[in-house]
């Protein structure tokens, strides 16, 4: 069998105290150094601290080498279609209220489990654990997470203390909306140009089909001398 090296876990620091609300979670104290075993995209991370293990909100953890997550994706204003699996009422101004069954587009997947989504031209945060990708099921959540509520957002954590002097990079909802509208307008213009080109080609083809066809010219009747010279004996008798 192949020999593999030890699994190296990422170490994070707790920025505030966290009181667990279920036996599957793990309590934290500000300054705790935890090893992250699993990063779930819904914002709940499975961590270990000495001889303890459990789920903790990603928003309560920060990397040691800087305030920003190197794994954080860039916004994708083309968007990915998702279906709302659970209704949620916005608790903050930069969140969206949606009901079960709504179709939305995800434009930025953030590691804390609160994704930036687009509904029509509105943008805002929404819990990723209440969303399912359109056209195919996501990997089913573990039993510990199925009945869990959305993790807290970093902006709602009181007494958060970071070891980094620089603040974490963030994009305002005004910027998300502006860039999203620019993308939508660009996409709309592209579709209109393609439709206009298709209409021009269709009209040209239709015009060609409706144009009257030229009739073949009737050949002139051969002269009597030509018939007598080139035709058969029976034809010449008829001419005489």
UniProtKB/TrEMBL annotation:
Domain SH3: 7-66, 77-136
Main location per the UniProt record: cytoplasm
GO biological process: respiratory burst; superoxide anion generation
InterPro entries: NADPH_Oxidase/PX-Domain, NCF1_C, NCF1_PBR/AIR, NCF1_SH3_1, NCF1_SH3_2, P47PHOX, SH3-like_dom_sf, SH3_domain
Name the record gives this protein: NCF1 factor
KW Cytoplasm (keyword) present: yes
Superkingdom as given in the UniProt entry: Eukaryota
PROSITE patterns linked to this entry: SH3
Gene coding for it: Ncf1
Cellular component GO terms, alphabetical: cytoplasm; NADPH oxidase complex
Region spans: Disordered: 203-224
Lineage, top ranks: Eukaryota, Metazoa, Chordata, Craniata, Vertebrata
A Pfam family assignment: p47_phox_C
Compositional bias ranges of the Basic and acidic residues kind: 203-212
Organism of this sequence: Centropus bengalensis
Keywords: Cytoplasm, Phosphoprotein, SH3 domain
Record localization: Cytoplasm
A GO MF term: superoxide-generating NADPH oxidase activator activity
């Amino acid at each position: 069998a192949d020999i593999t090296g030890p699994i190296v876990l990422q170490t994070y620091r707790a920025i505030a105290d966290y009181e667990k609300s279920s036996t599957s979670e793990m309590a934290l104290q500000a300054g705790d150094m935890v090893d992250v075993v699993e990063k779930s995209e819904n914002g709940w991370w499975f961590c270990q601290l000495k001889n303890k293990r459990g789920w903790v909100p990603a928003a309560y953890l920060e990397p040691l080498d800087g305030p920003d997550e190197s794994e954080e994706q860039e916004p994708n204003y083309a968007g990915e279609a998702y279906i709302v699996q659970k209704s949620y009422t916005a608790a903050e101004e930069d969140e969206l209220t949606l009901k079960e069954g709504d179709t939305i587009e995800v434009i930025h997947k953030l590691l804390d489990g609160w994704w930036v989504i687009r509904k029509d031209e509105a943008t805002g945060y929404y819990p990723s654990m209440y969303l399912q990708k359109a056209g195919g099921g996501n990997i089913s959540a573990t039993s510990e997470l199925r009945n869990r509520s959305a993790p807290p957002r970093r902006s709602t954590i009181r007494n958060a203390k970071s070891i980094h002097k620089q603040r974490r990079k963030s994009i305002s909802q005004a910027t998300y909306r502006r860039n999203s509208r620019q993308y939508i307008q660009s996409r709309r213009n592209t579709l209109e140009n393609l439709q206009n080109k298709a209409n021009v080609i269709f009209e040209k083809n239709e015009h060609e089909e409706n144009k009257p066809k030229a009739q073949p010219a009737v050949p002139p009747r051969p002269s009597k001398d030509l018939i007598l010279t080139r035709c058969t004996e029976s034809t010449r008798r008829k001419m005489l």
